[in-house]
Amino acid sequence: MLLITKVVIGIAAAIYAAAVGVMYIAQRHFIYFPDPARTLPAAANLPDVSERILSTPDGERIVAWYGNAKPGQPTILYFHGNGGALELRRETIRRYLDRGRGVFMMAYRGYSGSTGSPSEAANIADAKLAYDSLVGEGVSPDDIILYGESLGSGVAIQVAREKKVAGVILDSPYTSILELASMYYPWLPIGWLLKDRYDSIGHIGDVHAPLFILHGEADDVVPVRMGKRLFAAANEPKEMSTIPDGGHVIHDGPSFDIVDGWISRLRAARS
């Protein structure tokens, strides 16, 4: 009986070790879900948006879409979530452009025609490159508002730590990918395995630009409690709005108007 028990334990341990190994090797496939299809803005019914190609120091090419702001309006430097392509956000881009806001939206490596593979280090470096490119287009840092959608919230926070911006918007943000992954995979030693951690709760204290957080109260991907903890740890000035019964990353009329209203108040406060 003892021998059988040892054999069973040994088999279970081997299976667990194999599962841990697979998860370690394939971990970025559980974080990033890229759509590699490259679509030109005009084909997405955005004729007033142009494509930009950013060349990275390590030889990759990052695709971005850029719609100019009207005079006196800010430009939103937008970091999208972990799935889909730029085309998926076309209506969001259109809505901001219709309000006169500019939008500069980059695609992470492996997404929307960008070359390479995504990682935290690459995404942060490319996001800073996108910021520098936008400034190179003649947009003042005082007119740049960072927008981080889900995964992109961690990107936006790390850019805001180092770059001067007018404000930061976080849509369905998490405290860290480490904490989020531990919630989804409690049976794994996530602390030992995880490469891309996006430690937003650890970085938010270094952000001193005005902050706005939007979160759905029924978000079943990133719990609203994470957005609230991030908000509590953030510096003033800050605002947070939650959407009753709202899910993950909402871009409907009411939520868009809430965010756009904050942008209008932010701009008015400059006067």
Strand portion: 15-25%
Please state the overall shape, judged from the principal axes of the Cα atoms: globular
Please state the structural category.
alpha/beta
For the biggest β-sheet, the strand order reads: 2-3-6-4-7-8-9-10
Report what the structure shows:
The chain is an alpha/beta fold and 271 residues long. It is built from 9 helices and 10 strands. The chain has an 8-stranded mixed sheet with strand order 2-3-6-4-7-8-9-10, with helices on both faces. A two-stranded parallel sheet has the order 1-5. The longest helix is centred in the first third of the chain and has 24 residues. It is globular, with a radius of gyration of 20 Å. The mean pLDDT is 92.
Quick structural summary:
The chain has helices at residues 2-25, 90-98, 120-136, 151-162, 177-184, 190-193, 200-203, 224-233, 253-268, and strands at residues 33-34, 50-55, 61-67, 75-79, 83-84, 102-106, 144-149, 167-171, 211-216, 238-243. By secondary structure, it is α/β, with parallel strands linked by helices.
Topology:
Blueprint: H1 2-25, E1 33-34, E2 50-55, E3 61-67, E4 75-79, E5 83-84, H2 90-98, E6 102-106, H3 120-136, E7 144-149, H4 151-162, E8 167-171, H5 177-184, H6 190-193, H7 200-203, E9 211-216, H8 224-233, E10 238-243, H9 253-268
Parallel strand pairs: 1-5, 4-6, 4-7, 7-8, 8-9, 9-10
Antiparallel strand pairs: 2-3, 3-6
Helix pairs in contact: 3-4
